Hints:
Pfam families: Aminotran_1_2. This protein is of the alpha/beta class. The chain is 37% helix and 15% strand. The protein contains twelve helices and 13 strands. It has a seven-stranded mixed β-sheet with strand order 2-8-7-6-5-3-4, sandwiched between helices. Strands 9-10-13-12 form a four-stranded antiparallel β-sheet, with helices on one face. A two-stranded parallel sheet has the order 1-11.
Amino acid sequence: MEKLARKQVQQLTPYLSARRIGGTGDVWLNANESPFNNEYKADFTRLNRYSECQPPQLIDAYAAYAGVQPEQVLASRGADEGIELLVRAFCEPGLDSILYCPPTYGMYSISAETFGVERKTVPLTADWQLDLPAIEANLDKVKLVFVCSPNNPTGNLVKRDDIIQLLEMTKERAIVVMDEAYIDFCPEASCVDLLSRYDNLAILRTLSKAFALAGLRCGFTLANASLIDVLLKVIAPYPVPVPVADIACQALSESGLARAKYQVLELNANRAYLQVGLSMVAGVQVFEGWGNYLLVKFPDGDALFKAAWDQGMILRNSPIENCVRISVGSRDECEKIVGFVRNFYAYTQTA
């Protein structure tokens, strides 16, 4: 069967998600999931009927939450499907390219590679900001420029002035895709207000993080109506299952939004606790983060990662040397990982 696959697929290395990597334990801080397990009731009486392609109640609810018009919203199976739709809709295989700025989320590359679309990379600067001159020099044949803010795995925000410069630079040339999967933890940094000024802007959102619905697989693309209309040409006929729409609407209701706001406040407080606690360990550097995770540099990141893994504390390795990404969990989980790191280095220093 491998020989029958397309050449790009034969050569493809799949994205190593947290679940594919595995692990066993009772402290899971590797997938940027929420520690809150909220209860919902779903209507299972209509499962003999197909769902609507874009359920109006869901679209209206998220449009109201995001501060846009319903015609500017597309619902999909997670933000990952939004990435694929953009690549499929705007990039000609073998001709066009995407551009992204590592270190960043790995699915931009894999989605493009799967469809035979060339990938260009312009690494972030030393302070993890956009290298605008290098991006401009590499825009030939680029149709999509992916920017993640807060960036995964570094956690930093991309400068708003640089985003505006990038949008100006790419006018009539390419679409800037702002990945705002973690923007609910710092909503003031969203680019959603720029939709009124730029037709070449698309924004990816998700209910997986701040809304504690990673298992629901519900995401959104925000853009002007003309861009959304293009995506509607390539999306599957029934991308939003009936129970998904029901639960998502509950999460976006007045009471659901109040709960999400409270939980975000608690997670941001836990992030501050985690940042301070880890920063007090000699030799450990914690980078400022704006999502529900922190990037932490250890004297030996691989050793720390493995030791935590062996103790049932599942963290996430990073492509950045000696760095480990740690999700913000419950206060109990944060206390456990801070205590583990302190004990680990106290032991290694005396051993």
